[in-house]
Amino acid sequence: MKQTLCVVCLTLILCRYGWAQPITFGIVPQHSAVELAHKWAPVLHSLSSMTSLDIQFRTAKDVPTFEQYLLLGDYDIAFMTPFQYINLPKKTQYEAFVKASDSPINGLIVVNKNSDIQTLTDLKYMTLAFRSSELSASTWITQQELKAAGIKVYSRYVSSDESVYLNVNKGFYPAGAGIQATWESSSEQLKENLRVLWTSRDYPTYVFAHNTRLSTDTVTEIQKALLQLSDTVEGLNQLTTLGLSPLVSAQHGDWDSIRTLSSTNLPGIQ
């Protein structure tokens, strides 16, 4: 009896002081794991300080692996592209609850600054570098827009937008796809050696989604903390570093504008 009471008391103490089961926060691997951790650590530290929760950074070695983790429900909270979110099978247990208020996604195509390529039409039948998932933002947007324009290209996949830029810089491919956020955070040397050939229209922003296994109280607490990040200069700077505007509440239907396109043009996460 004494032993049982001790276990119960210890459990209550651990929960009270934040030593309960951590909340895993999965981030889509737009950059290397080291760079992602560097950018996201301040945000997750702030969230942990603002809540009674131990919120821990997680990612994956590449985008396809991240998508498999989503299918398995491995993350408690996940930051993903809108294309990953809308293509998750209905049985998957993630539900959008937060988004950036004004941070649209723009796809882009880069070429060497001295390249003869001047228009999208010049890319016809060329081999372009893409990030290694059809549902990464840079790949989805660019392939969608090229297809709509009737410009056939061949695809070669690399691990990240960074790899795309590096491969184009080294001359391995004449052009490659990225997004505005990863381009802006690239090194000055890359920006000097490459130029943006084309930029897409605005697409809906990234998704903060919670696993439905989390309790309502936990979800509400995390949501409140996310929305309050921009209330301080420090928190606003942390969001700016991630290329995000202040966060607002979100719901599943906020991405309906791209659901019809997705259902007719691309497969879901397999």
Automatic annotation (TrEMBL):
Leader sequence residues: 1-20
Domain of life: Bacteria
UniProt keyword list: Signal
Pfam families, alphabetized: Phosphonate-bd (PF12974)
Keyword Flavoprotein: no
Name assigned to this protein: Phosphate/phosphite/phosphonate ABC transporter substrate-binding protein
